[in-house]
Specification:
The chain is mainly α. Helix content is about 65%, strand content about 0%.
Amino acid sequence: MRGIEHFNAGRYFQAHEAWEEGWHPAPEPERDFWQGITQVAVGLTHRQRGNAHGAATLLRRGSKRLKGYGDRHMGLAVGMLAEFASDVADRVEREGTDAPIDVPRIGTDGS
């Protein structure tokens, strides 16, 4: 999955572009899944660009959408990603976009 490769390399804007291709044509309920991971990537893009409000807003939206899919969906650890996004949104609101974070790698290998 091209979006995962971009995400794991820290290219969140490119990940969002790749995942958006899956989001727009997807039927419900898959649309929320695609939109959720896309929003997490956009939130991290906003963080990289110094936009704390945009980062926190999109990370929260993505987290909320992904939480509905449990721990794993389509082979991905979405529960972990949802929790990460929520935690980072809180941290960015408290400390700003320069707050150090440890972005998890996501993949289909159980990580």
